[in-house]
């Protein structure tokens, strides 16, 4: 075990796994090597290994302040001595941390690709979302496919979401826009009846209201700004009318998806 810890070819994650596999039999000498290791281990990995081997010997607990272990992790380890943290908690935390890192990395990749206007980068972002999807991948793929001019793929996504998504109103806005594109028309060609169908959604605070408002504003409509203020017992909606009503201008490429695309940019 000590040789495994000392070997610089084994990274922090691998050492953590080994310490957890042999729990609870890690020796005091092995813990000393963990704290003195070069390159140093990730403190979260050390905390996980310590918790997995709990309850710890008193001499090991005394190492935490001796080696200036971060107070947050010290508290987690000490809590585990009283069965405050379980292995299940550790695994859930690990999964949550991975998913968060994965989602953040994909968001950064998508944002940078769309900003760059580099077709290869945008295609690469699409591949990552298709092969390693996260909760926001569907919306991201729509923005990516619009950027690539791949309206056929957008149609596949929209049709599937109209059936399966709980946010049908959001996808109905995209369906209207996409239908215009498929008929070689633009956002200015939206008919009166379709405008009226968008109005209730634009006045709501549901999914898709931002896209609906953006489109109708582009066509000449105007809307009050709304701010939701939380209180102790409820949330009150406060309507704030702008001192001057100014019309927003949107490019045809981003109506009605501008609100979504701006999030990525």
- Strand arrangement within the widest β-sheet reads 1-2
> Mean pLDDT score, rounded?
81
Shape: elongated
Helical stretch tally: 14
Low-confidence stretches at least 5 residues in length (pLDDT < 50)? 234-265
Secondary-structure class: mainly alpha
| Distance N to C terminus | 48 Å
Number of strands: 2
Listing every helix as H and every strand as E from the N terminus to the C terminus, the arrangement reads HHHHHHHHHHHHHEEH
Largest pleated sheet: 2 strands, antiparallel
Relative strand content: under 5%
Radius of gyration, taken over Cα atoms and rounded to an integer in Å: 27 Å
Helix fraction? 55-70%
Structural description of this entry:
With 265 residues, this protein is mainly alpha-helical. The chain has a domain at 2-85. It has 14 helices and two strands, in the order H-H-H-H-H-H-H-H-H-H-H-H-H-E-E-H. It has helices spanning 2-6, 12-21, 28-36, 43-52, 58-66, 71-80, 87-116, 119-131, 137-148, 151-164, 168-182, 192-203, 209-218, 258-264; strands at 225-230, 235-240. A two-stranded antiparallel sheet has the order 1-2. The relative contact order is 0.06.
Summarize the structure.
With 265 residues, the protein is mainly α.
Which tags fit this structure?
63% helix, 265 residues, disordered C terminus, mainly alpha, 14 helices
């Amino acid at each position: 075990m000590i040789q495994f810890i000392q070997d610089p070819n084994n990274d922090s994650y691998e050492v953590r796994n080994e310490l957890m596999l042999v729990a609870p039999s890690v020796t005091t000498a092995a813990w000393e090597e963990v704290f003195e290791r070069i390159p140093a281990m990730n403190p979260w990995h050390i905390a996980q290994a310590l918790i997995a081997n709990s309850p710890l010997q008193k001499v090991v607990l005394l190492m935490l302040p001796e080696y200036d272990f971060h107070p947050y992790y010290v508290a987690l380890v000490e809590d585990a001595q009283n069965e405050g943290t379980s292995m299940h908690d550790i695994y859930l935390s690990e999964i949550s941390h991975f998913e968060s890192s994965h989602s953040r990395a994909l968001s950064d990749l998508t944002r940078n690709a769309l900003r760059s206007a580099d077709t290869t980068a945008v295609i690469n972002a699409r591949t990552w979302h298709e092969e390693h999807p996260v909760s926001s991948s569907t919306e991201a793929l729509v923005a990516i496919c619009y950027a690539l001019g791949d309206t056929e793929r957008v149609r596949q996504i929209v049709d599937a979401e109209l059936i399966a998504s709980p946010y049908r109103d959001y996808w109905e806005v995209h369906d209207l826009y996409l239908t215009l594109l498929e008929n070689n028309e633009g956002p200015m060609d939206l008919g009166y009846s379709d405008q009226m169908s968008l109005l209730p959604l634009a006045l709501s605070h549901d999914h898709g209201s931002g896209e609906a408002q953006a489109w109708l504003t582009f066509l000449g409509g105007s809307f009050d700004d709304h701010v939701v203020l939380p209180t102790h017992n409820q949330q009150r909606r406060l309507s704030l009318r702008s001192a001057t009503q100014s019309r927003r201008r949107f490019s045809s490429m981003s109506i009605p998806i501008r609100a979504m695309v701006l999030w990525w940019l």
